[in-house]
C-alpha cells in the first residue's frame, strides 16, 4: 500500500471555529487519498493570539516538511492580515465573500466579531433552552401532557434514533420535539395510541432496515427476542403498515445522519 | 424610522444545507440594517430539483422587486450550473474554494455528494449516539457510576446551563459529558463531593452572574428563596470559591452561547 499523503489543516476563527471547521471539512472529504490532521484554533481575538497562531502554523509546516492548509473566518482585517503572513496555503472565508456581498447590498459590513450564535440573553437562545427542556421532558413517551405545544412528535419502534433526532431538533432549531415509541400493543390494537391521534399533522415516523435494527438492539440486549431479526422484521413491518394507513410521513434512518434526518423532517413538515 | 432594507436569501445544498446556512448566516449578521428573509433548500440532487429552485428564486426576485442572494454548496457541477442561471447574486462555496485546494494538493477531488456528516454505519456516528446516551444517563448527578468513562464532568449550581452544554458536547463532538449540581450541602462541607474528587482533571465549572441566575430561576420558581437574588449571590460566591480552591477551571456562561461554552471547554481541557 502506498503511504497516504498527510497534510495538516488549521481552522482559525474569532468565534468558536465550528462553522469554518464544518465548511473546511466538507471540502476535505472530497480528497479521500489525503490524511488530514485537523487543528482548530478558536477565539483568536488579539494580536498576540494571531502571532502565536502564525508561530504554530510555521512550526507545524517545518515538522511536516509541507506547508499547512489554513481556513479562516476572521472579521478583524488586522488579525486576518497577521494570520495570513504564515507560510501556509490560506483560504479566507470573510475576505473572499464579504466584499462582493457589501457591493451587492450597497452597504459596508459592521465588522462585528462573534455574532453568529445567539447568546444567553437573546430570545433565540431562550427558545433553544426551552425546547431542550421540553424535549427531555417528552422523551420516549414519558408523558402525553403538553403535546399541544410540540412542534413535532416523532414515532418509531425502539432504537430507530428518536431521542438523538429529537434533541438535535431542539438544540439546533429550537423546536419542541416529543417522541413516542410504537410498541407491540399498538400493532395488536391496529391503530395509533389515542393520545397521538389528535396530533396527527405533527407526527413524523422513523423506520430502519430490520437487519440494522437487530444489530443495534443486539448490542443492548444480546440474544433476546427483542433483538432477534424475526422480531425486528415484525415490528418494522407493522410500524410501516400503521404509518402508511394513518398517513404519517416517515423516512428510513438506516443510512442517514442525525443532521440529514432532522433536515428532512423540517422540510417535510414545513417547519421554520 | 426608515423602512429596513429587505432581501431574500437562499441557502442551497445537495446535503442538509446546515453548513452553508451557518456560513451565510455569519456573513449576513455583518449587515445589521438589512432584514434578511432566509430560505433553505436542502437535498438538491437532481436536474428537476435544480430547475425548481431556479423557478423559485426567480419568482421570489420578481415578488421582491430585487434579485435574491443565493449561497450554494453543490458538488455536482451540472446542478451548480443550472442553479447559477437564476437571476440572483450567487456565491458558490465549492466553486470558489475547490479548484484552489485541488491545485494545492495536486489532486482532483472525488466530487462525492453528501460526505460531510457521518452516517449511521460509521464509527463516528456510533460514538455520537453512545455519547448522547451516556450524557442522558449522567445528567444532573443521576448516578456516579461510570464516571471513569466520562470525557468531561461539568459542575455548577442549578440553572447555569449544565444540561444543554453536556448534550451539545455529546451531540456535536461525541464526548461523554456528565454533569453534577453543586448544592448548599457541598458548600457547608467546604469541599467537593467525594465522588468527584478523584476525577478532578476532568472537571469543568460553569458560573453565571447572580442577577441573571435569579432571573432564570424566577421563571421556574417565582418568589422562592431558591430564586432570590440574595440566595443566588450566596450560591455563586460559594461555588466560585470552591472552584478556585480546588483548582477547577471554569467560565462565566452569562453572555455565551452553548456553542461558545462548548468550544471553550474543548480548548481548556485539551479535548480532541
UniProtKB/TrEMBL annotation, chains A, B:
<feature type="binding site">
    <location>
        <begin position="156"/>
        <end position="163"/>
    </location>
    <ligand>
        <name>ADP</name>
    </ligand>
</feature>
<dbReference type="InterPro" id="IPR005177">
    <property type="entry name" value="Kinase-pyrophosphorylase"/>
</dbReference>
<dbReference type="GO" id="GO:0005524">
    <property type="term" value="F:ATP binding"/>
</dbReference>
<keyword id="KW-0670">Pyruvate</keyword>
<dbReference type="GO" id="GO:0043531">
    <property type="term" value="F:ADP binding"/>
</dbReference>
<comment type="function">
    <text>Bifunctional serine/threonine kinase and phosphorylase involved in the regulation of the phosphoenolpyruvate synthase (PEPS) by catalyzing its phosphorylation/dephosphorylation.</text>
</comment>
<dbReference type="Pfam" id="PF03618">
    <property type="entry name" value="Kinase-PPPase"/>
</dbReference>
<protein>
    <recommendedName>
        <fullName>Putative phosphoenolpyruvate synthase regulatory protein</fullName>
        <ecNumber>2.7.11.33</ecNumber>
        <ecNumber>2.7.4.28</ecNumber>
    </recommendedName>
</protein>
<keyword id="KW-0418">Kinase</keyword>
<dbReference type="GO" id="GO:0004674">
    <property type="term" value="F:protein serine/threonine kinase activity"/>
</dbReference>
<comment type="similarity">
    <text>Belongs to the pyruvate, phosphate/water dikinase regulatory protein family. PSRP subfamily.</text>
</comment>
<keyword id="KW-0723">Serine/threonine-protein kinase</keyword>
<dbReference type="GO" id="GO:0016776">
    <property type="term" value="F:phosphotransferase activity, phosphate group as acceptor"/>
</dbReference>
<dbReference type="InterPro" id="IPR026530">
    <property type="entry name" value="PSRP"/>
</dbReference>
<keyword id="KW-0547">Nucleotide-binding</keyword>
<keyword id="KW-0808">Transferase</keyword>
Amino acid at each position: 500500500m502506498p503511504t497516504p499523503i498527510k497534510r495538516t489543516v488549521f481552522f482559525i476563527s474569532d468565534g468558536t471555529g465550528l462553522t469554518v471547521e464544518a465548511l473546511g471539512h466538507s471540502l476535505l472529504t472530497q480528497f479521500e487519498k489525503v490524511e488530514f490532521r485537523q487543528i482548530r484554533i478558536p477565539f483568536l481575538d488579539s494580536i498576540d493570539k494571531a502571532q502565536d497562531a502564525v508561530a504554530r502554523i510555521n512550526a507545524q509546516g517545518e515538522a511536516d516538511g509541507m506547508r499547512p492548509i489554513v481556513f479562516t473566518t476572521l472579521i478583524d482585517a488586522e488579525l486576518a492580515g497577521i494570520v495570513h503572513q504564515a507560510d501556509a496555503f490560506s483560504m479566507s472565508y470573510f475576505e473572499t465573500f464579504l466584499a462582493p456581498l457589501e457591493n451587492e447590498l450597497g452597504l459596508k459590513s459592521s465588522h462585528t466579531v462573534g455574532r453568529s450564535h445567539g447568546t444567553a440573553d437573546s430570545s433565540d437562545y431562550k427558545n433553544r433552552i426551552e425546547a431542550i427542556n421540553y424535549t427531555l421532558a417528552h422523551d420516549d413517551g414519558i408523558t402525553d401532557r403538553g403535546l399541544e405545544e410540540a412542534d413535532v412528535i416523532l414515532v418509531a419502534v425502539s432504537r430507530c434514533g428518536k431521542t438523538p433526532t429529537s434533541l438535535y431538533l431542539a438544540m439546533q432549531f429550537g423546536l419542541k420535539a416529543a417522541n413516542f415509541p410504537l410498541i407491540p400493543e399498538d400493532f395488536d390494537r391496529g391503530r395509533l395510541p389515542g393520545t397521538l391521534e389528535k396530533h396527527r399533522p405533527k407526527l413524523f415516523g422513523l423506520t430502519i432496515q430490520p437487519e440494522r435494527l437487530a444489530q443495534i438492539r443486539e448490542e443492548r440486549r444480546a440474544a433476546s427476542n427483542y433483538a432477534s431479526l424475526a422480531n425486528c422484521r415484525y415490528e418494522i413491518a407493522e410500524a410501516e403498515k400503521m404509518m402508511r394507513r394513518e398517513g404519517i410521513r416517515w423516512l428510513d434512518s438506516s443510512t442517514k445522519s442525525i443532521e440529514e434526518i432532522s433536515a428532512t423532517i423540517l422540510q417535510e413538515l414545513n417547519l421554520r
